[in-house]
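Notebook, p. 212. Picked up where the previous page left off. The plan for this session was modest: take the two constructs that came back from the sequencing core last week, fold each one, and keep the raw output in the notebook itself so nobody has to go hunting through shared drives later. Recording the first one now, exactly as returned: residue sequence, then the structure token string.
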Amino acid sequence: MIARQRIGLTFAAMLALLVAFAPWIAPYEPARQFSTHPFAPPMRPHVIDDEARLHAPFVYPLRLVDPLERGYVEDRTRVIPLRWLSGTLVRGADTEPWFPLGSDGLGRDVFSRVVLGARLSLGVALLAAVIALAIGALTGALAGYAGGWADSALMHLADLVLVLPGIYVVLALRGALPLVLTPRQVFTALVLVLGFVGWPAAARGVRGIFLIERRQEYAEAAKALGASPLRVIARHLLPASLGFLAVQASVLVPAFVMAEATLSYVGLGFAPPTPSWGAMLQDAGAARGGADAPWLLAPAGAIVLAVFSIHLASSGRDPLLWRDGES
């Protein structure tokens, strides 16, 4: 395994842990507002105070000195010890918040919202990819094994979906749904819409593999021994396409992360105050986050990290070696 793959797998594992333990990692509830700290800058932890004394990790509280200019200064006359394993991994005091990545215009902790938003944004991408790959594998398997009119009909259907511009299809399908949906309904709608758009490429790849593999000696021997078509497909032919499906997943998941962010940013996905990465970027755009509060662009950094880590983890791998269980 080359170095960049190790780096990618490390970041991918960190993202998986982030999703799994998000409620424990986030210091505060995503909707909790600290009205006295709008647009607060990130608060850097310290271990040495101004008098060169060593402390457990702490932060200096922020004091708003200019509401119009969003100006804050550190109150260095007192410290806020960071509380560990107090309901969450680490947090500040109940009345004196700690903002690792700053706060937004309503005084909500950006770090908590980014962490909890990973569950929505990555959850949509992962489930949509699973649905797309499942539909694609089933369709490609049927087309490649049956051949004839079934192959022609299924591949024409795949071509019809494949030639359409993906983003416009997604926008049209989402636009056909009611504009106002609950977060759960939005999650379900995005998973189904993205899964529908993503299956044709997987179907064509699986079909090509089946057309080759069904003529191999091991497949012919299984049929000669009386194995049913379903057993031949599930036990012998489908495993040959697992490497291709793994590579396809590494393409679909980043694409779906970007699609969710795009839809939420233009108002067709999750809507504020739901803490998805796309909805947070919409908030940042409305607040001119890039110019006045650059920490509001943290969701963009999370998107780049997620996409980059997945591409690194899958780079340089041969699908045929994946199938044979080699690295």
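Okay, moving on. Second construct, recorded in the same format:
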Amino acid sequence: MITKQEHTLAKLNAFRTILQLARKHKAESLCQIAEDLYKQAIIMAKNTPEFELIILLESLFELASYYSFQGKENEAKPLWEEIKIRADGYLKADTYIYVQSIFNLSRLYEKQEDIKKAEELLKELLQTQELQFGDESLEICSVLKQLAALYCRQQKYSVAESIHLRILVLKEFHLGTCSVEINSTVDALIDIFQKLGKWRLAEYMLNRQKAILVALHGNNSLCVASCVFRLSQLQELHTRELNKAIENLQYAIDVYKERFGEQAGPVALLQRKLDQMLFAKLENQMVVDEISTFELPVPALTTV
């Protein structure tokens, strides 16, 4: 006689087989078969109370992700919503399935121009994470990043700036001042400062990024050269620091020469740019010299 435990185990094995077949057909681009198998797995999970809820959530998540990949957002949306409802209070607020479902659902609302609902979803998740992990925890950084990205897409750059600065403080506290995670936040702030026309702050962050990249990859890495080239452009066009711009562009050229050789196309382009800067510097100096040597006529003193 088959026991209840053995019966449940058999159902679970059958469920796993269906899910594996769905994944296999998805990988082979057999879309309709994969979709039907995912639906079958979800029905089976819902009709088997003894299954763990996580099994159902995983099935819903995979099918929703599959629909989103195919651009079937209308089919994906109710699945994301169901995951959120079922996972609330069941999964921890940093569980991948739970967090990504809310991110995807928020993005869908945004695409449908329901910005308020998209924002509310992310703020609700942030509040939940802050209650579970603390408002100074590293766990909240991913939802803060999503919230900042939402504001950037709405061109609310000042709000996004404050959020990224909060992320930077949290990452520095937990990860130190030089890490890949820090660099991504610094890069986001550079972009925001440039959009806001805060050129001195953008320059500061580019110098900060250069120091991070040097610590991670060494002085002569291509990523450092790319950062320094961006810094040179900003200093030439916006902060009007031609000497610094020339120095940084020369640095970038030296790295590219070492990697690609003096005759490489990018090196030649940057060298022409450097020549233009040097010529502009020479012209500026000539103007300064001419002004300094020019003597204004002294008016004759007259007596009354």
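Notes on construct two before I forget. The first helix runs from residue 4 to 27.
Flagging for discussion at group meeting.
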